[in-house]
Protein: DUF4238 domain-containing protein
Organism: Aequorivita sublithincola
Amino acid sequence: MSIPRNHHFVSQVHINNFFNSEKGKFFIYDKLLDNHYFKTTSKSVCSEIDLNSKYDNGNLDYISLEKDLNEEYLKYFIKKVVKQR
């Protein structure tokens, strides 16, 4: 099993609410570069490789923080907020 290392700093649950289904794209504005562009998938939108990684006993841990965020935040958010819509 591969370890996911592409970590989102904005949850994909949130990102997917900005998908333009009519055009099949996410329209994005990069404020720092003053650049408008689009993506067809949320995989690389608001994400960074190894963002939620930490050092543990001298080793890089790619899993535990991402797992905690998923269990403590995303599952709660989906259960409480998304299903109430």
Observations:
- The beta strands are 6-8, 26-30, 35-39, 47-49, 54-56, 59-61.
- The longest helix spans residues 64-80.
